[in-house]
Amino acid sequence: MKKLVILSGAGISKESGIDTFRDADGMWQEYDPRELASTDALKNNPKRVLEFYNMRRKKMWDANPNAAHIALLDLEEKYDVTIITQNVDDLHERAGTLNTIHLHGELSKVRSMDNPDEPIEVEKGADVCLGDLGEDGSQLRPHIVLFGEPVPKMAEAIDKVKKADIFIVVGTSLQVYPAAELIDFVPENSEVYIIDPDIPNVNRKGKMYFIKEKATVGLTKLILDLLA
Q1: What is the structure's pLDDT at 199?
Q2: Which residue out of 69, 102, 104, 143 is catalytically annotated?
Q3: Which among 81, 82, 62, 87 has a CA at the least distance from the CA of 12?
Q4: Before 187, cis peptide (omega within 30)?
Q5: Statement: residue 145 has pLDDT above 60
Q6: β-strand 80-85 against 191-195: which pairing, if any?
Q7: What is the DSSP secondary structure assignment for residue 14, as one 8-state letter?
Q8: What percent of the chain has pLDDT over 90?
């Protein structure tokens, strides 16, 4: 069974109503990431950081997987599929995907300040507030990779990409590092498909295919071809 690896970004969840970050109408046009999503922000104003992620978590709970999330399930009938996502929402999982690597953490989880290795699920509808403590007695924080923190899942993701027979990029402009570097680890003889309304500039030799469509349309077209 061929190994198929998908790198998904904010564009795939945008069609479910979840805001992107870097688009012209993205969140970083309204909010300053240094004040809400950085290690300094967590240290200096943890209450504000917790409130920001409570707001984002509610938007995630109100959203539903779209046709692109669901269409990816069909690939599992023919391929050994791994989804590597830059997204922190749980829409891939709610669509039924079996194997997902979250590079930037998971919005549905929190962890204690002193123990990053044991995240816990947030009960749907609940807020996480200053004074909410983990079992070790330290403050709970979002299970999110903040600006200024390493990406702990990167090594696992690279290992998957190195073994990919087919690599699909969907909903990401390949501008967020280190995630954007994953395409450099795809074997030269493997097929690479990039789906995005704005095709990024990719300097790579080998089999490259570009589908200039939004996620739902482009994935539907590609999956039909891959399952033929």
Answers
A1: 77
A2: 104
A3: 87
A4: no
A5: yes
A6: unpaired
A7: H
A8: 77
Per the DSSP assignment, residues forming a β-bridge with 133 are: 139
Q: Count other C-beta atoms under 10 Å from residue 38's C-beta.
A: 17
Confidence class of residue 173 from pLDDT cuts 50, 70 and 90?
A: confident
pLDDT of 25: 53
CA dihedral 149, 177, 12, 80 (to 10 degrees): -90
**H helices then E strands: how many in the chain?**
9, 9
Q: How far apart are the first and last CA of the chain?
A: 15
> Which CATH number, 3.30.1600.10, 3.40.50.300, 3.30.70.1890, 3.40.50.10420, labels domain 19-62+108-144?
3.30.1600.10
Would residue 143 show up in a list of annotated catalytic residues for this protein? no
Query: In 3D, which of 153, 32, 66, 56 has the Cα closest to residue 110?
Result: 56
For the chain, domain boundaries:
1-17+66-104+150-228, 19-62+108-144
How long is the chain? 228
Q: Which residues pair with 194 in a beta bridge?
A: 169, 210
Question: Is the confidence at residue 104, as pLDDT, over 60?
Answer: yes
Cross-strand bridge partners of residue 82: 5
Tokens of 206: 């080998």
The number of CA neighbours under 13 Å toward the Cβ of 223 is 22
What pairing do the DSSP bridges indicate for beta strands 166-170 and 191-195?
Answer: parallel
Strands 140-144 and 105-112: antiparallel
